[in-house]
Amino acid sequence: MSVSRMFFLVCSYLTVSITAFGASLPCIQPGTERWPVKTSLPPAGTPTKIMTLADALNLSKLTDVKKDDPRYQKTRIMDRSVKEDTLVTISGWLYLVGFESDDCDFHIQISPQPRTSTNPATKDDTCMIVEVPSGQYATGVADQVEAVRQWVIDNLLGKTEPKIGSVHVMQHPVYVTVTGALFYDDAHTYLANGGTGRGKKGMESNTLWELHPVTSIAFAPAPPASPPSH
Q1: Residue 95: burial class (beta carbons within 10 Å; 0-12, 13-18, 19+)
Q2: Selection from 118, 99, 117 nearest residue 107 by Cα
């Protein structure tokens, strides 16, 4: 296969939209909300739990955790019905990669449905958000997160560094397996309609649970297509 042909195939995974100011913005600063937690991992030896995406999306809402709860700003949630004491592996359809303009995180959305730029998200879709911080800020896990970010660049972004503020929607379905630390994003709250207001390009996440930081990502065999309903 020629180099030009290979480059075309890699690039065909995505389309790109960039905010009007995105190309010129530097990352503003490291994050603040629960930053010590979302840039670190549970203690060494913590088991990795394989979880279906459906189960991950249905993890309990921690209604007794307040917005920006000061109890958990620097510590993991360990005293609730679901604990941040594990690494979790999920598999699903990767909808988009965003390059956040504030803290340089790679924002990735994993959905049960193979949504793309030509088969866009609907109001009934949901996703789990998984985040890959920059090793510049997540120094304790720099090697792992930078390897994941490079994988995304090499395999999904045509070996081109994304522009800050850009959002890359997959043009063709991409099925992946992702592993990361289970994390509860209490900087947001559940809305009256059951959503969270989180998500990009028409795909809202209905859970405040994330994987953050992501420690590995890889292509995975796609599940068999469901037969059409009658």
Answers
A1: buried
A2: 99
Q: Is residue 20 part of a domain?
A: no
pLDDT digit of tens for each residue in the chain (230 aa)? 544 444 344 444 555 443 333 333 467 777 889 999 999 999 988 889 999 999 999 999 999 999 999 999 999 999 999 999 999 999 999 999 999 988 999 999 999 999 999 999 999 999 999 999 999 999 999 999 999 999 999 999 999 999 999 999 999 999 999 999 999 999 999 999 889 999 999 999 999 999 999 999 999 999 987 766 55
Instruction: Let me know if residue 46 belongs to a domain.
Output: yes
Closest to 34 in 3D by CA, of 109, 145, 104, 138:
138
Three-class SS of 61-99? CCCCCCCCCHHHCCCCCCCCCCCCCCEEEEEEEEEEEEE
The CATH number of whichever domain residue 110 belongs to comes to: 2.40.50.140
Largest CA distance in the chain: 57
pTM, 2 dp = 0.88
Note whether residue 3 is domain-resident.
Answer: no
Residue 101 lies in a domain: yes
